[in-house]
Amino acid sequence: MAHSRISMAAMRSALTRGSAQQCQRCFSNSALQTKLARSGAAAMNNSVRSRLPIMQKRTKYNTVEQAKSRHKTGPFSWKSGLLFVATCGLLVWYFEHEKERMQRKRIAEANKGVGRPLVGGPFELIDHDGKPFTSEMMKGKYALVYFGFTRCPDICPEELDKMARMLDIVKEKAPAGSLLPIFITCDPERDDPAALKGYLAEFHPDFIGLTGTYDQIKDTCKKYRVYFSTPQNVKPGQDYLVDHSIYFYLMDPDGDFVEALGRQHSPDEGAKLILDHMKDWAKR
């Protein structure tokens, strides 16, 4: 009886150990299979991914021709072309502007003498109202000085019309009173203040007429390098013409000669020169 019990216990023990080992093997096989399944899935995913086409970033071009046309132009475009042209235009304008300014400066400096101006100088005359007028009254403003006479048949009227037009253009673009328009007679014998006043009123109300004695006019003309000549042996009451230089003399606010404007200058060209010199003076 005891022997039977021992045999039954041994049999149970063997069965328990066998079942445990079989379960352990089953558990190990199950974990291994799960691991292998996971590895296989990963490998399959990698394989599938490797076979899938690579998706590129979407561009703004709809066709291959459009993309190729972009590369045909290289790094340049119409915007860069416009910027290049505009930059070149500004540079050309700047250098031309500076060239003209330096040319005006050279002319102005060349017309100034050492110690005294080559053109211009002190004078004492009377205006068309019979009041004293001196060269000092020109200081602080630009002055446009013209020499002529009231009985001139054609040249003086043409030049005074031009002078009036230049004055109007300058007045539109410069402060009021920046330019003094001065007419100095070369015929003081006949051009008294009353004659000057009536004559100049026909051209512009701002014109200033100056006269004086023959010696005063002769001295002023000499200082401005103005040539004038009256015929000799003229009888009283006899009409005659006065030969004289035909220039406008531009004087700066210091009373120095800047530039001579001749008949080759139109009113617009003359006014532009005057305004340019005024701008140069303002930048000093």
What is the element layout, followed by pairings?
Layout: H1 2-51, H2 64-72, H3 78-110, E1 124-127, E2 132-134, E3 142-148, H4 155-173, E4 179-185, H5 193-200, E5 208-211, H6 214-223, E6 228-229, E7 243-244, E8 248-251, E9 257-261, H7 267-282
Parallel strand pairs: 3-4, 4-5
Antiparallel strand pairs: 1-2, 1-5, 3-8, 6-7, 8-9
Helix pairs in contact: 4-7
Describe the structure.
Helix content is 51%, strand content 13%. The chain contains 7 helices and 9 strands, in the order H-H-H-E-E-E-H-E-H-E-H-E-E-E-E-H. The strands form 2 sheets. It has a 7-stranded mixed β-sheet with strand order 2-1-5-4-3-8-9, with helices on both faces. The chain has a two-stranded antiparallel sheet with strand order 6-7. Helix 4 crosses helix 7. Residues 1-6 and 22-28 have low confidence and may be disordered.
Annotation keywords:
single chain; 284 residues; alpha+beta; seven-stranded mixed beta sheet; two-stranded antiparallel sheet; 7 helices; 51% helix; disordered N terminus
